[in-house]
Amino acid sequence: xxxxxxQDPLNFPIKLNNPxxxxxxxxxxxxxxxxxxxxxxxxxxxxxxxxxxxxxxTVLKADRGKLNEALKVKGSxxxxxQLLD
Length: 85
Fold this sequence. Notes:
- The protein has 85 residues and is mainly α.
- It has one domain.
- The chain contains three helices and no strands.
- The protein is elongated.
- It starts with 7 loop residues before the first helix and ends in an 11-residue tail after the last helix.
- 0% of the residues are buried.
C-alpha cells in the first residue's frame, strides 16, 4: 500500500496479503477449476496465516492489559478484542 515507486518494495517488503491476493486473482481469472498447484499454494499460505494469527493472539492475550492501562492514563478508549477460537 505504501509502494509508490519501483524502489519501494525494497523499503516495504511484500507481506502475506500480496501472495493471497495474487492467488485469488489467478483463480478468478481462470476458465477451469483451480490447479493442483493453486491448492498447494493455498494450503501453504493458509498455514502461514494460521501461524501469524496465533502469534497475534499470543501478543494480544499477553499485552492487552498493559495497552489498556496506558490508554486509560491518556483518557482514550480501551481495546476490546474477541479472539478467534
